[in-house]
Specification:
The strands form two sheets. This protein has a five-stranded antiparallel beta sheet. Strand 7 (93-100) and strand 8 form a beta hairpin. The N and C termini lie close together (10 Å). It has helices spanning 41-47, 111-117, and strands at residues 7-18, 22-29, 34-40, 54-59, 65-67, 78-89, 93-100, 103-110, 124-129, 135-137. The protein is built from two helices and ten strands. By secondary structure, it is mainly beta.
């Protein structure tokens, strides 16, 4: 199956914490970075997600925010450090490719945000992704 979601990062499930309807799934990316996904309990069961499962973490580029450093006092669970590799700018929006350990992420942000943050190739950034915006796929 092909997907339009540009960010597809492989990892291994390290834990699943189930609630009434939702579950939090902790995933160790191939780089060693940990991320958290909040998905339905039904999806966990249907996909057979358990500790040790190989998964792809999927994130739409519009759901990736960028900061120029780690952000404290924030409810966003996933803060992934990286380096800007490329920026493609249009009239209002920009596509920012960020190299992370073991892969890459793309963020769709405004052209103004690129300017305000002073982003350029080589800039250190932190990709911010809410756990509810991460989907998981199994093979």
């Amino acid at each position: 199956m092909s997907l339009s979601i540009r960010n597809q990062v492989p990892g291994t499930v390290t834990s699943v914490t189930s609630g009434e309807v939702m579950a939090t799934v902790k995933v160790r990316l191939e780089s060693g970075q940990g991320i958290t996904a909040a998905i339905t309990l039904e999806a966990v069961k249907e996909l057979g997600i358990a500790e040790g499962s190989a998964v792809l973490a999927l994130v739409k580029s519009t759901e990736v925010a960028l900061a120029t450093g780690p952000v404290a006092g924030l409810s966003i669970r996933n803060q992934i450090p990286g380096t800007v590799a490329d920026i493609a700018t249009g009239g209002a929006m920009a596509s920012v490719k960020v190299d992370i350990a073991g892969g890459a992420l793309t963020a769709a942000i405004t052209k103004d945000a690129v300017a305000d943050l002073g982003l350029a190739a080589g800039t250190s950034v932190v990709a911010l992704v809410k756990s509810t915006e991460i989907s998981l796929a199994t093979a």
